[in-house]
Model the fold of this input.
Amino acid sequence: MSNAPTREVARRTFAAEFNDASYTFKESDDERAPVYLLLPTGERANRVFVVGTLTEKEDVGEDSEYWRGRVVDPNGDTFFVYAGQYQPDAAAMLRELEAPAYVAIAGKPRTFEMDDGTVNVSLRPESITVVDESTRDRWVVETAERTLERIEAFDDETNRYAAMAKEEYERPIDTYRDNAIRALESLATVDGAGDDGGDEADEGAATEGETTPQ
Done:
């Protein structure tokens, strides 16, 4: 039997919830134990999977390349992505990409506490891939579904991560329900803007999002 560690599930979350998730923890005292970000909807995340629009990028490094990217979700909220010498493939993608572009990113959340106590959350990418609009739309549908499922289970007495979230965060859980619904409505607005076939396109996108894994 292999003793190699298994890769953590990449959670789906919209940027508003990701940026509100300021609390991190470990499940054991082992120095190599994974660090988890506690999502306000009651789930742990060692890795996340996001798809959005890369709107801008900048090399903010001083002695070596260190790329910062802004990836915007359908609600207009931003994931901040940082890649340097320890993420050479992701850094190369940010260097070469021309914004705007739809991108899919798998990576690990990172938190940084500012002098005033504010915690900034960013994403350290393991991979960055250029995708098309339909892939972005499927991600929106699936991320909304996962978010609403977490909210549905939030008051379950056996949900220990929800209990932790109640202790650590003050923002009402309905904030994230509204966020998920607004993201879905943004797809309906775009699909309905066509001259014909708007309803069929919207229905097809929702069905594809429910049945197509990433």
Notes: The chain has one domain: 10-211.
